[in-house]
Amino acid sequence: MTHQAAEVAKRRTFAIISHPDAGKTTLTEKLLLTGKAIAVAGAVKSRKSDRYAISDWMAIEKQRGISITTSVMQFPYRDHIVNLLDTPGHEDFSEDTYRTLAAVDSALMVLDGGKGVELCSIALTDVCRMRDTPIVSFINKLDRNIRDPIELLDEIEAILKIKAAPITWPIGCYRDFKGVYHLADDNIIVYTANHDHHKNTKTELIEKLDSDRARAYLAEEYDNFVEQLKLVQGACHEFNQQEFLNGQLTPVFFGTALGNFGIDHVLNALVDWAPGPLARFANERTVDPVEGKFTGVVFKIQANMNPKHRDRIAFIRICSGRYRKGMKMRNVRTGKYVRISDALTFFSSEREQLEEAYAGDIIGLHNHGTIQIGDTFTEGEKLGFTGILSFAPELFRLVRLRDPLKSKQLRQCLLQLTEEGATQVFFSEGSNNIILGAVGMLQLDVIASRMKEEYKVECFYEPITVYSARRIDCRDKKKLEELSSKVIENLAIDGSGHLTYLAPTRVNLAQMEKLWPDVKFLAALERY
Ligand code: G4P
């Protein structure tokens, strides 16, 4: 195996997904602790007042003086390099979540054992299913009362439409939580309550369920547990790696993130079973991760955590080749070459600037307005990676300024937020109206608060009747002029400068398509 192939084979790039409050942040922190990327857990406390994740990591960053960003974390585990991508944990999530899922090879789903499958998990697994992304499941909060585990597995199968194969099985819960039984290894991994969360405690193993030690440990629960296991083994799916890789089956683990228990089981599953960097599809061809030449795709642009510096970071998933410090890259969309000597890495235990990175890794480039979500970078080849979806907004609002003198700032900040992919903006052709499009209301609330905090622009929203925003594609200039004169009040320019038709209703859109056969009203689904 070449050096590059060996480096690629080491990588595991996954997103962590869950419904808010299931324990994603706590689990992420414990994953970093297990990966020795941080030394102390418990630094991340209640974030009820600030759910947008940025502050979650600031505390650790300050405490250790290391560079952890909100959304990408890299750490070594065993002889592997793990790239963990956070997804925003909002109830109604943004396009960002979809794109992050497009940049990973597998996902880790966290479920609250007391609640089971909740709304966000359904939406997120649906997105995973679009690409058959393999999912590892972690049922959390075993130190509390949880629902019947068999019922939880049934729920995963019925609602998420994926086979569930338990790898470990819980022995009791809440005060009686004694640990988990590993079905394949036939051993009990002992849980001790109130142990020190700040350290990686050594696990105690009891070999074989059919042993005196196991009988003594489970005491009067022993017979019941053995009975339950028979049922589980009879009724549940067995783990099958191929089905897992096809996205048809999820291995299920039980534990408690707060109690730092079960985390290593999940990490082992990701390392042992989840795929390494997969081939990626471009319009021109399929790109193999071990190809010699560098290629990558921008899946996210984020305003820096430091509001004083208005720089933005473009996150690139490396699809093939090797990033070397100082290398020249071509942004295929603009055709321009740039020399990159200051790419950021998200290796949380080291501060050094990135020297090299391989397929599966995420690097960050400083963006001064020249990089867009979906951009492909290569060493020269003309390639366009597909799959970084741009979803059609479903919710539209008119933006109104509280201080009318700030209209220039409003325009500027909305263009930047659009570039980040945080929202979609439309500047009306027939009036001075500015319209925002989003996937959900919360996304618009976040935009309003970011405008206020980061750009000092205060605004409010008013309803507007828009059913769908459609990009207009028409080669015939005359027809286009005719259209403009007839429906100017429904036309707008979107954030990337495209002429867009804002259809007030479904019926109207259908009529327009019929009346203007030479004009295409394109639904925004995929950028390239
Ligand atoms: P999220 O990122 O998915 O939204 O969840 P987060 O980790 O913030 O966890 C949500 C709440 O659940 C937190 O409590 C957290 O402490 C708690 N939690 C997470 N894992 C476990 C677990 O294994 N057992 C128990 N008992 N609780 C768990 P909180 O009250 O909202 O905040 P805090 O004051 O405890 O930090």
From TrEMBL:
Quote the record's binding site residues for GTP. 18-25, 86-90, 140-143
Principal place where this protein is found?
cytoplasm
What are the protein's UniProt keywords? Cytoplasm, GTP-binding, Nucleotide-binding, Protein biosynthesis
Q: Which InterPro entries match?
A: EF-G-like_DII, EFG_III/V, G_TR_CS, P-loop_NTPase, PrfC, RF3_C, RF3_dom_3_sf, RF3_GTP-bd
Keyword Amino-acid biosynthesis annotated: no
Could you tell me the superkingdom of the organism this chain comes from?
A: Bacteria
Span-the-membrane segments of this chain are: none
Which Gene3D superfamilies does the record match to this protein? Answer: P-loop containing nucleotide triphosphate hydrolases, Peptide chain release factor 3, domain III
Cell compartment(s), UniProt: Cytoplasm
Ranges of residues in domain Tr-type G: 9-278
Is Oxidoreductase there in the keyword field?
Answer: no
> Which family does the record assign?
Belongs to the TRAFAC class translation factor GTPase superfamily. Classic translation factor GTPase family. PrfC subfamily.
PANTHER family assigned to the protein according to its UniProt record, in alphabetical order:
PEPTIDE CHAIN RELEASE FACTOR RF3 (PTHR43556)
Give the protein's function: Increases the formation of ribosomal termination complexes and stimulates activities of RF-1 and RF-2. It binds guanine nucleotides and has strong preference for UGA stop codons. It may interact directly with the ribosome. The stimulation of RF-1 and RF-2 is significantly reduced by GTP and GDP, but not by GMP.
What is the recorded name of this protein?
Answer: Peptide chain release factor 3
Report the source organism: Candidatus Pseudomonas adelgestsugas
